[in-house]
Amino acid sequence: MKSQEIISRLPYSKPFLFVDEITKIDESEVEGNFTFDENLDFYKGHFENYPVTPGVILTETMAQIGLVCLGIFLLNNDFNKDISIALTSANMEFLKPVFPNEKVTVVSEKMFFRFGKLKCKVNMTNANGIVVCTGEIAGMIV
Amino acid sequence: MNREETLVQLRNIVKPYINNEEAFENFTENTDFITDLNINSANLVDIILDVEDYFKIHIDNESMEKMVDVKSTLEIIETKLAKK
């Protein structure tokens, strides 16, 4: 499955789509990136006069690239509009701030995919290759 | 391994995932993972994977669907262990 095809199957759209590109994907791993447009709405309030990407948005970005894109790839034809998915757990550590216009790369490694639950070890790095966020995220078909 | 021992081992496996301390105190064969212990389906998967690791057995989809309470889980563990 091509990068563009996976992204088109994501159940998100602007302003809540946080995937620009999938650069690598196979049965066990996915890599993708996203650039945070400075005009994204949440920067107006997080924080006032000091825009920083909220941790929940970093978590969401990591989940969309690391978990949902990989899940769509793994399910392939079994993934359709009738399937609903849910984030079930996220255990994250935030190491560096991510500012407006930064491009981040997410690499996610599958820990397991059993009984409809996908759990991954996910890392996010900035343009300098520095890890900004790391953790374990799981989601499920519900 | 008798049922009593298996019950104690299962109790230890389940412990990190419970959301109702009181129901967990009365952990018996009649305990339901979802309605009594408030365990969600995602953590139920974790419990089943932990059961596989601990007892060194493989749980298939069909068995997994039955493992919603202590009694049926013990039965499946016993059946799988007997086949080893």
From TrEMBL, chain A:
Source taxonomy: Bacteria, Pseudomonadati, Bacteroidota, Flavobacteriia, Flavobacteriales
A GO molecular-function descriptor: lyase activity
Protein biosynthesis is among the record's keywords: no
InterPro entries referenced in this protein's UniProt entry, alphabetically: FabA_FabZ, HotDog_dom_sf
Sorted UniProt keywords: Lyase
Top-level taxon of origin: Bacteria
Transmembrane portions of the chain: none
Pfam families named in the record: FabA
Protein name per its UniProtKB record: 3-hydroxyacyl-[acyl-carrier-protein] dehydratase
TrEMBL record, chain B:
InterPro entries in the cross-refs: ACP-like_sf (IPR036736)
Protein name: Acyl carrier protein
